[in-house]
Amino acid sequence: MLELKNIRYDVDDNKGRVEILKDVSFTVESGKFVVITGPNGGGKSTIAKLIAGVNKSTGGQILFDGEDITEKSITDRARMGISYALQQPVRFKGIRVLDLLRIAAAKTLSVAEACEYLSRVGMCARDYIDREVNDSLSGGELKRIEIATILARSTKLSVFDEPEAGIDLWSFQSLINVFENMRKEIKGSSILVISHQERILRIADEIIVVADGRISKHGPGSEILPELIGTQSAVNSCDKLIERS
Amino acid sequence: MDNIQKRILEEVADLHDVPEGAYNIRANGESTGRRSTANIEIISKPEGNGIDIRIKPGTRNESVHIPVVLSESGLKETVYNDFYIGEDSDVLIVAGCGIHNCGVQDSEHDGIHRFYVGKNARIRYVEKHYGEGDGTGKRILNPGTEVYMEENSYAEMEMVQIKGVDSTERLTTADLGKGAKLVVKERLMTHGSQSAVSVYKVELNGEGASADVVSRSVARDDSYQKFDACLTGNAPCHGHTECDSIIMDNGHILAVPQLEAKNTDSELIHEAAIGKIAGEQLIKLMTLGLTEAEAEEQIIN
């Protein structure tokens, strides 16, 4: 389904050339739920952006269903079947939740159909469908709408960048349920999630640990998770709250 | 009506055929179709420069369409349309003006709409302005809207200038009585070397009156926009005005929100923001499958 081959990503900053990703290769097979974890600043979000086409790699190749997409635009990749949920969802004044879901689904969804996607992310749909995707929504609400847009697209590959970031504990519980359900209904598609959350790591078929721009571990979830418990790569939600306070 | 006129009618009033309910269609300075209903009467003014629309008290769930089409180059007209909305009624009013000018002379329609909204009455007013045609003559629209609102009345006004209008000077005034509520949603897009000025003067005169005047606009190419909204609180009241503009290319935008309070219990707020389209908004829409141009269109529409 998705293959990254020897991916490099360098940026220039005021100290000179910085290597963000040094030689990253992995494959996400069809029907798999794969979680990328690892310490902050290790390059995880960069991988998600390179897959979606938001950033362009400085070396290596990305293949999607066997086709080289390394030089393809964000739009081309989206149309080929890659979805990407941003870590920090974007706000849009003047665009309603319904409009965003319709764009995502690429058709004129009925209100009932759009409501269905919102219900699946634990939102009382009627309260939200006509609201604008603006500052009046909380971080947790935006995050759930972001995930609903990915559900509405229902593409072959869905990439989620830290879905748990910036949301409250209550929203977090329902978010985990959303991912557990996605895992059950995965069928021929694949899901790639960047997360530190133990409960998301627990449902992973495979776990990839990225640190300092390289893959340090990659294997079945059942093998890798026990090695991560108690480290920064697999925290539970309470630890995260303590860390913030 | 010819094909050009029909197409314009579709742009400004979403009409493919004659509308249901009461209507008056004005094309090139003349009424080309009219229907009154049992509750809504449309009468020509004796001076011949407009119409009176009288809505009986208690009229509910009915609509009035009064679109205007100009397809002759060089036509200039000023039209007065007065709406008398009876107590306890609840109606939809759809106006709109489209100009097709492929000649060298300027075409201009200045529509003055006066609304007398009776006690406890509710109206929703939708107005779209549009211009087209490849002539050098300008397409000019200068609408004047006056709203007089009695006790506990409600008016929602959606005023949209889609594109193609070279010059517009819009003046909206409102006088709100006790418990009256006015909601204005203005959307404006200018391009080329167009100029658009929109002025609001809202007087909150009765206790518990409230107004919410929101403008969303986009200035592209070398166009100029001025948004000037003044809310005056003369009684215990609530007022909010907001101007949110997207600037592109060599656009020029002037936002002048103003508040004036003459009563210690008037609560008035204004917000104004001008900025370009955020790159992250374009990226998000592109990840949903839109091209960059489609994403831009989505944001500004």
Please indicate the count of domains of chain A.
1
- Profile the largest sheet of chain A: 6 strands, mixed
Order of helices and strands of chain A: EEEHEEHEHHHHEHEHEEHH
DSSP, total strands of chain A: 10
Number of strands of chain B: 22
Stretches of chain A where pLDDT is under 50 for at least 5 consecutive residues are: none
Describe this structure in words.
The complex is a heterodimer of chains A (245) and B (301). The longest helix of chain A has 16 residues, at 169-184. Helices cover 37% and strands 27% of the residues of chain A. Chain A has a single domain (2-244), classed as P-loop containing nucleotide triphosphate hydrolases (Rossmann fold, 3-Layer(aba) Sandwich), CATH 3.40.50. Chain A is globular, with a radius of gyration of 18 Å. Chain A is built from ten helices and ten strands. In chain A, the strands form two sheets. In chain A, strands 6-7-8-3-9-10 form a six-stranded mixed beta sheet, with helices on both faces. Chain A has a four-stranded antiparallel beta sheet with strand order 2-1-4-5, with helices on one face. Chain A has helices at residues 44-52, 74-80, 97-105, 111-120, 125-128, 139-153, 169-184, 198-202, 221-228, 237-244; strands spanning 2-13, 16-28, 33-37, 59-64, 67-68, 82-85, 157-161, 190-194, 206-211, 214-220. With 301 residues, chain B is mainly beta. Chain B has one domain. Chain B has helices spanning 3-13, 279-287, 292-300, and strands at residues 22-27, 30-35, 40-44, 50-55, 60-65, 68-70, 76-85, 90-94, 97-100, 107-117, 122-132, 139-141, 144-149, 154-161, 167-176, 181-190, 195-204, 209-219, 224-233, 237-247, 252-261, 266-275. In chain B, the strands form two sheets. In chain B, strands 3, 4, 7, 10, 12, 13, 15, 17, 19 and 21 form a ten-stranded mixed beta sheet that branches. Chain B has a six-stranded parallel β-barrel with strand order 1-5-8-11-9-6. In chain B, 42% of the residues are buried. Chain A binds chain B through residues 52, 54, 73-75, 78-79, 83-84, 86, 89-90, 92-95, 99-100, 103-104, 106, 149, 153, and chain B through 216, 244, 278, 280-281, 283-292, 298-299.
